[in-house]
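Write out structure tokens for TetR family transcriptional regulator.
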Amino acid sequence: MAEERGRRPGNPQTRESILEAAIESFVTEGYGGTTIRAVARTAGVDPALVMHFFGSKDKLFEAAINGTMPVALLVEAIDGDEEHLGERLVRRYLGLWEDPVHGPKLAAVVRSAAATPATAELLKELMTRELLGPVARSLSHDHAHIRGLLAASQLLGLAAMRYLLKIEPLASLPADLVVAAVAPGIQRYLTGTLSLAEATVVPR
């Protein structure tokens, strides 16, 4: 069957074009509002080619998450002494949310995860593998996985209040003040004394 005029052939560059179109759609339309046909139309390819590269909408979203979430940039903040790990993580985390490129993408992924169980599962797997794992391995204290989860729960709540719900005055506080207020709590979760001695903790 002859290829439609103007349609791009199936090559790595085409895959990247499809992925860029998908990321744009997921950011602006959300998971529910994104369709394979719309992504294909934006990328200038046949919908069958989207399925050829990604297999399903879920797989396309998984690839978009991996291409959208700046996890590697957050993981870079792990490097350094444990004593100031909390401050480095909070400062980098806020910087990513306030970045004009990364911020809207982060918001889109979190909103999609809150609305769609399948999306939440994909995000959980990515964060566990790519972020919580490296954080836990960097810690020299007991219950490292639980410590990472507690810190992540605080950071996610902070993002929801400051960037998604935009609750004042938190939404307008200078980032440096937020870092100064939040970092000590994150640091305690990561390296301080936790009351988990009697708990049975099964690490993932």
